[in-house]
Structures are given as C-alpha cells and as structure tokens.
Amino acid sequence: MKALVIAAGEGSRLRVSGYHGVKPLYPLLGLSLIERVLLTLREAGIREVVLVIGFRGQEIKDYLGDGSRLGVKIQYIDNPSWSAGNGTSVLAAEKVLQGERSFLLTMADHIVSQEAVERLIKVRPREHEIYVGADFKLDRIADLEEATKILVSDGKITAIGKKLNEFQAVDCGLFHATPALFDALKEAQVQGNSSLSDGIMVMARQGQALVCDIGDTWWIDVDKPDDARLARKVLLMNLPSPRDGLVARYFNRKISVVLSSWLAWTRITPNQVSIFNAVLCFLSAILFATGHFLWAGLTAQIASIIDGIDGELARLKFLKSPFGELLDSVLDRYGDGLILMGMTAGAYLNGSHPLVLVLGSLALLGSPMSMLMKEKFHTATGRRYLPAQEGMWVNLLLANRDGRLLVVMLSGIIRLPVVGLAILAVTPHVLVLIRLKLMKRLLLKNSASLKV
Amino acid sequence: MKALVIAAGEGSRLRVSGYHGVKPLYPLLGLSLIERVLLTLREAGIREVVLVIGFRGQEIKDYLGDGSRLGVKIQYIDNPSWSAGNGTSVLAAEKVLQGERSFLLTMADHIVSQEAVERLIKVRPREHEIYVGADFKLDRIADLEEATKILVSDGKITAIGKKLNEFQAVDCGLFHATPALFDALKEAQVQGNSSLSDGIMVMARQGQALVCDIGDTWWIDVDKPDDARLARKVLLMNLPSPRDGLVARYFNRKISVVLSSWLAWTRITPNQVSIFNAVLCFLSAILFATGHFLWAGLTAQIASIIDGIDGELARLKFLKSPFGELLDSVLDRYGDGLILMGMTAGAYLNGSHPLVLVLGSLALLGSPMSMLMKEKFHTATGRRYLPAQEGMWVNLLLANRDGRLLVVMLSGIIRLPVVGLAILAVTPHVLVLIRLKLMKRLLLKNSASLKV
Prior knowledge:
- Two copies of one chain form a homodimer.
- Chain A is built from 20 helices and 13 strands.
- By secondary structure, the first copy, chain A, is α/β, with parallel strands linked by helices.
- The first copy, chain A, folds into two domains: 2-234, Spore Coat Polysaccharide Biosynthesis Protein SpsA, Chain A; 240-451, CDP-alcohol phosphotransferase transmembrane (TM) domain (Four Helix Bundle (Hemerythrin (Met), subunit A)).
- In chain A, helix 11 runs antiparallel to helix 12 (293-306), helix 11 (270-289) runs antiparallel to helix 13 and helix 15 (356-366) packs across helix 19 (417-424).
- Chains A, B: The chain crosses the membrane at residues 275-295, 347-366, 405-434.
C-alpha cells in the first residue's frame, strides 16, 4: 500500500518561536517531523510515499532526496495552490493515486505511533469509503479548540469540522482513503470549500465516512512550540521497556532517558553505546581487581544506567535491528562476567578466604541464567517473558541485570566485594528455581491453548 | 478436522512371527502401532478420531480407552463384517462422518511421518473429491508387489489397484476424503467389490480422485516382521537433530540412538534423563576437583552422549514439551559450569599456577555463549540457527557443547585439565566473534527480506 503525505502548508505558528526553517523539517529529538512520519510508515510496512509539497517545497526535497536514506521511495508532487486549503494538496495527488484500491493519508506535521498507523492499515474501506483515524479520549487532547471534531453515529461520521458543538472524537490526521475522496474534494470545491474536512463531509453525507478508533495509541499534531514539547515528552515517556527490572524501572531509566534525549542529537549509534557499556564494565573489573572498590562499584552502576541507552536511542531514532539486539546481549554477558571476575580477583587478592573463588564461580555460573531462560521462553512461546509478572517479591531478589549491578555497586561502596559475590552466588540460582516453576505453568498453559 | 482410522483387519502375517496380540497393538520402540498413528495425528493437530474396530476389537478398545491418555478423543465403531474388505470398515463410519466437510482417513498399521499427515491436511478436496497420499519414490518401496499402485494423469488418478502393470506411484494409506467416498464405496459394493481401492476407483472414473504427493516424507505399511524392522530403523534414523555439532553427529549419536531404542521400552522420561545427565556432570566435577582426572574426563564424555537421549526419547515417544527443552538447556548450562569449576579446582589444587583461575573463569564465561547466541538468533528470525552451516573449519573449533565435552574428556585422559581449560578459555570466544560476523550477515539478509 502507498501513503499520501501532505507537507505543503506554511506552519507559521511554529516559525514564530525562533525556528526559521520549514515546518516539516522542524527537528524533534534528532529527527525532523517529516522523517518521523516517514520512518513510522516504514516500520508499519509502507515503503512507497507520495509527498505533496508546496510552501518552500524545494527545501524539503533537498533534505529528503529520493527517500532511500530512510528506506522509503518518495514521489514528489508540487501543489502551487497550497495556500487555498489542504484539500487542494490531496487533490494534487489524484493522477498518481487514482489507480490504487486504497491508500493511507497523513500529514507531515502529525507525529503518530506505529500502532495507530497499523490500526488504520488493518481496516479495509470498500470502494467509495474512507476511514478517519479518530481519538475518543478527549481529555488528553491538548488544544481541543484547534482540533477537528467528529460527530459519530453507528460508526459513521455524521459531521466533521473545527466548529462542531456536539462531538465524541477528534480527527487525528490519519486516514485510510480510497480514490473516491478525490471526487468528494472536487464536489466540495465547487461549493467553494477546499479543506480536507470539507471533502470528508461530502462523503459523510453519503454515509461513506467511517471511523477507526485509534484507542490507546498516541498521536500529536505539532502546530505550536507547546505541541513540540508535548511530543518530546510523549516520545521519551514511551522509551522504557516493559521488560525492565525494579532498579531499571525506578532509577536507571530516569537518568538514561534524559541522556538519550541529548544523545539523539548526535550521530552516536546504539551499537556504539553497547560497546561503550562493555568498556565501562571492563574498567569496573580492572578497578575491582586493583582494589579501587568504591570507584569500581560506581562505574558498574554507571554502566547499568548506560545499558538502557542503546535500546532507547534505537527506538527514538528508528535504528532497531536484530543484530543490534544480539550484539547488546552478548556484550552485556561479557560485561557482567568481567565485573564478577574483577570482584573475585579483588576480594581474593585483598585477603579474602580462598573460598571466595567458589563464590565468584557460582556468581559467574548464575549470571547468564536470567537472560537465557527468558530467551528460551521466547523461542518456545513466541512471546517475550516479562519479569514484572513474577511479582514484587521475586523482583526484590534483584537477580536481573539491573539488580545484579546494583548489588555490585553497593558492595563496592562498602568496600566488601565478597559480600556482593556472596549475594550474587545465590540469588541467580534461586531465580532459576522460581522461574522453572513459573515457566512450567506458563508453558503448559501455552501448549494447552495451542491444542484448542 | 476429524480422522477416520481403520483398525479392523486381522493382520495375520504379523501374528505368524511369534506375536500373538492384535496387529494395531504391535509394539514398536515403546509404543503400539495404533498409538503411533494417533499421536502423529495429534501432533498434526487432529484431536478427534473415529476408530473402526473389528477383529478382536475389544482388545484395542480396552487398551486405548477414550484416548484421553494420548490427548485425543476416540469414538469407536464396530464393523462386524470387517472380513469382507476394508471398504466395509470405511462405510461403517458413514453415519458419524456424513456431516463433515472432509476428514482424514488412515490405517492403524501405517506408520506415517507427521509431515506427510500435514501435507494431506493442507490439500483441500472439493465436494465429491478425494485426495490420495501418493509416494512417487518407487525405489524406496520395500515390497512393491504388495503395494497398491496408482496410475496418474494430470494430477488425477486414472487407475488404482495391486495388480496394475503401468503406474507411477504407490498409495500410502493416507487420504483426505469427503463423504462422497461413502457413496462410491456403496456403488462398488453393488458391483461386488468391497475394498477401499474399489471405492476410490469409482471416484477415479469420475475424475474425482486426486493425488497428493508426499514427497520426501516417509511412511511404512507394517505388514510383516520385516516391515517392523524397517520402521524401527527409519524411526531411529530420524532421531538425530540437524543442530548437532561434529562430535555429536559422528560419535555421540551412534551410541545414544541405540541407548534410546532400549530406553523407549521403559517408563523413563526425557526430563529424568536430563536430570541424570546433570548428575553425571556434577560427578565429573567432583572427580576433577579430587584429582581423578581420567575418570572425570570419561564421565564427562558419557554425560555428553547421554545429553542426546532426552531429546531422542521425547521425539520417539511423542513426549516433546517446551518445558522439557527449557529444563534440558538450564541443566546443560549447570552441568557445563560445574565441570569447568571442577577442572579449575583440580588443576589449581594439583599445583598449577594460580593463573589457571583466570583460564577457568574465561572458560566459564564462554561456556553459555554458543547457546545464548543461537537462542537470540532464533527469537530474532523465528528460525533455528544451524551450526552445521558455519562450515567445517568453524565446527572443528569444537566450541559447541559436544565439542567442549570432548576437550574435557581428552584433557582428563592426558591428566592435564589445565590444557583443556586453556582451550576452553579461548575457543568459545573465537566462536562468538565468528558468529557475530556470520549472524550479522544473516540478520541483515533476514530483515531485508522482511522489507519486500
């Protein structure tokens, strides 16, 4: 399926605030608005984009090129009469799209979640129909006055416009359209109305404008500097992983997300962060082995915080890759192992009983088990294993990576790595026993549900 | 979908050879023929079976009960006139199956691979049609004279029977039928012909008997003691995993398959074997730590051989479970770790330089990496990673579990665990580097193909 993206308007309210570029190129956490739109479409599986430009269109063209840098194919259409209304920009694409069964339609200044796009792709308009992405959660709309409202009855739109008094939802600038939209826009134009909403109103009158509830997924119309701030907040809020352990959730992420929001503006890649993280672990190991326990512990905790950044940067800048995930997890295992070796060496050389070697070995043996069991669960069921579902008491064992590195730091601070080793020699194995029990139940349930 | 299984015949040729039970209950590697048929159907997703009994039917009924022990629901139908031909046994199920769109039909004495059943399920006969599972690889048919031959033209059967002079394929006793078969059987009966083939011939004349090529999948009609021997061989031949390393493929499996063929007759479960394997590893560790290097090494190699048996038993007796796989891999990691700890302790206590502790730690750190990377690859791509594709030179690193345990044994035999540790401190990390490179390419190719 192709997507039609409208990037023709002026967006003057964003320019007022000291930004002098053209609106679709407004930068947000290291990517321009239009790049975020195109990359979101790509992640949702759409690789061919028709881009309508108008106001300072050449700048957008120069910036995006043919789209291959972003993994999409862009076909540009110039709309010289963009100032007459956004309906004219949609109409400008008629020739190119009239042969399509249906196409996605969105705006260059609307940041939407991939899930919202996927919902719109999933609905299938019949010939002459259009689906309008609608947000029914009105209390979360920042600027309700400016929003395009929708009155719905039985899943069909009965009225659409900025000035409705009665409405249940808001149009979020995301549509699954058919070429019938072009005829509707022309009909509206004859009556002197040239906005997209006018065209949809024509279809609504014929009962052919349907609603697609985007549910809990998010979208933001970036019109003013306030909207950009909100968009930034929402993007950052969605970074932490549901797979986080306790320490990551309530401490590490608070810092790593801020760091990621800065690093997003640089060219630093997620894989570089993964490697830097492993280097920090190596440094912590050396510090432990040479008796600098305090610094060693702090370095390990810094590594733990940075451990989140590779994934955050990848999500923020659409750089997720299966190889990146593989590299990250291999390097994490090496990082963990080196720190434990350093702690053992440090404790042993600083006068601990030789039995500390056994503790170190047991800790080293236990350290990959948490991840290994999660991966095995994933391959068996096709679903990620979420440590959070193990409940607070198991989480308090701190046997996931974030927890283990906290134990490392604390034992460095009290300058007794042997204490840390003693804890880490036990907790991962307790976690293995608990998980075997939990997973046994989950896997049996899973294969039972397969039987149905 | 339901399956109709015919278990009504006498099977006298199998009884001649000293076996006095009824043919469907003939035991083969720990399971009766009929159990193998029902379990194969279950694995292919069929849970409702109509079972036609006749000759000594009560024995079969007593043995299988309602089928819940095997995870299927059995509905019995008694065919008192079974001796008149197997067509009468199919006809006996008419009342029960006439409302079905289609059903699978097979014989209690035909051992077929799950893949063959899945192929037959996948083809979709239209009303009045039947698909006949056909084996075109005639050179592998043991007793071609006894086989039911098929003459095919344009995917349609033009003649079927034991006495054809011209034929391209052989009927393997597996059908995807529609209730039209019952009418065809009745028509054949009127003409005095009461075999299943006679009914299919009626449909063939109307161009409604189609062929489903079972390709490379296997099936065996167990008629005589010779067939049972062949079936046993084929079942055992299919046990080794394509994920085996070099040592497993060319040495361990030769022994483990024989052991499995014995253990199949006992009540020993795959999980019990996994646990026994871990106990052997623990024993090897103790022997290493106490300086009994030779015995320690041999015990490790025995563990390596036994490591294959849990999976073999699971495949042989339809006992595969995701939890079993999880338990096996967790216990394998513990077994590996304990042996390495034992080797390190043994080398250190027997006068090696303290640097052997570093070697031991590096070996311990490297030991889970092979598996971890394979699992990560699996979750990223949905496909298993096959070490065999890494090529002979990488395989010769012996960095998979079977190879590592061979190194353990050899270093025990030469009574120098430090040599084994030195090798195991290096090779897993070399493998990590090689795999990172190989997997990077494979994962990029994979995500590229997703884009199309």
